[in-house]
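If I may wish for something, please walk me through the protein I am sending here so I can picture the backbone:
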Amino acid sequence: MPGSGKSTLGKQLAERLSLPFVDLDTVIEDQQQKAVSDIFLEKGEDHFRLIESQLLREWAGSEKSFVMATGGGTPCFHKGIDIIKQTGLSIFLDVSLEVLLNRLHSKTDRPLLNSIDAKEKDEKLRSIRSSRLSCYQNAHLTITDPTIAKLIAAIQLKK
């Protein structure tokens, strides 16, 4: 989910594992020379999801080892969860809606959550979570209230 800590924990995990960290949204922005929010605004979500899927497939098909933070929708479009699971370890960072809302309250760079008021943002976030939860639950691991310690422990147990 947006605001679940994918980038923050991903960077910490990559450092602990001595692997490069890849933020898929940053890869998209670098390739397109535009912010994700601008891509959504100018070309729409469907176009963004195609670019996102293409780059996910490229990275997943590489021989490199890395830790990647995907966008919150990446696993749920164009068989993203299948690609991730076939080529790596997928982890769902399960964070409560209340925590997500608190983290995203003042964020304006989330194209799907841009709203005029807190109530609308709350409703959109609930809707996004509801529509994506079944996809997220297909991940190899689910970590509730994730921390780097919980993340490392879960990965070690998975081995």
User: Anything to note?
Assistant: The longest strand covers residues 91-94. Residues 24 and 56 are 7 Å apart (CA to CA).
